[in-house]
Amino acid sequence: MEYISTRGKVGKIGFIDAFMMGLGDDGGLLVPSEIPQISTETLKSWQELSYQELVLAIFSYYTNGEIPDEDLKEMVEASYSTFRDPEVTPVRRINDELYLLELFHGPTFAFKDIALQFMGQLYTYVAAKQNKKIHILGATSGDTGASAIQGVKGKEGIKICILHPNGKVSKVQELQMTTVEEDNVLNLSVEGNFDDCQRMIKDLFADLEFKSTNHLAAINSINFVRILAQTVYYFYSYFQVAKATGSFEKVNFSVPTGNFGDIFAGYLAKRMGLPVNKLILATNENNILERFIQEGVYMPGDFRSTYSPSMDIQVASNFERYLYYVLGEDAELINRLMAQFKSEGEISISAEALSRVQEEFAAHGVGGQECLDTISDYQAKYGYLLDPHSACGVAAHEECGGDKVITISLATAHPAKFDEAIKLCGIEQSFPTEIASLFNKPQRQVLVDGVLADVVTELEKFYNA
Ligand SMILES: Cc1ncc(COP(=O)(O)O)c(C=O)c1O
Description:
binds pyridoxal-5'-phosphate; single chain; six-stranded mixed β-sheet; five-stranded parallel β-sheet; alpha/beta; Rossmann fold; 15 strands
């Protein structure tokens, strides 16, 4: 297994090099040179594996044998040892057609922990093995930052800087990031929105001299290892639901989406052979991706602040990975389209390509009131408290699912992280102690204008200290 770029100008590289490169050096996104095909026999043999065993089985197709089995096993065990549920990602039955895949049992109560706790282990491993300095740089709409910081705080050889949009993350998300005391952590609170933070990060990774002088490493879903770690729970949840219902038919997955990272992991799982009917793409009112799936036009609209702030994203980094596959793995074409997107702010695909997209995806952009109503309804009807992102997934299932096909809807965060929305539903929730204790701690963060030069000044100070 080797890795190539969607823009075709990165030679074939190995697993650890792809992990360390993050964004492709040609500005594209790294993808496996071939998607491994998992036979029905092998799928069957995976049904009884524990979550950790399944991680190892799936990774074995991608790691090229570059990490000795024992080392990988140790990292996987350590990554999930902090999770509060022995199943890591348990599934809950809501009704005959709907199951929730709970992805929030990790240390920061959001699905990002599943990939980022592992990536923290892997960065620490590489730093020690290669005697390397690693300076992680990432942008967050709230959850990635908290989880990545948790994964590497205080780790030898590693520094981490996270940019978040000032005032546009929830209070708990902000506290999780900024109450960490370790000196290898820097939080930059940027005047602007998540797209501004992500653009600056991508510009810094694309500046190859800056990237190498400053030893930059990526934790955003531009990093293929993030995607790979997230494919595991698509397989795991399918097996749990199939065993519970006795039906090994295809299922839908409904996925709350911002950067197209998590849903791309689902697409990869499907391409590997998981029996998936539709991938239901749930957005909030920042619905560029919904419009793409319905009309074949990818064009950012006006930024909206919503009740699901972690999905307040207009430009979805991982979309390029999907375009690459749906348009026939043609790197030349992707180069042209991405250049066009940069100059004209829009990409359109042919009617024939659009019908391929619609065979695999359905989409629904969930309005603000619809999101709150879903939270209230599910609390009243099923006694289940959804966070506003998970509520978007459930609302999209109600709109696009059904027809006797089971939907597994991804519950991407714990409601305690987004009490602002829960309160608007008139619901009083009690906080887990790990979250309640954050409110008394002092915060550390540096406020910067949304100007690249100001971010660079702070970064150089931090990395060179
Ligand atoms: C709680 C939550 N749900 C959904 C998403 C969307 O995931 P993705 O950006 O991978 O599409 C995010 C992160 O951006 C999130 O934090």
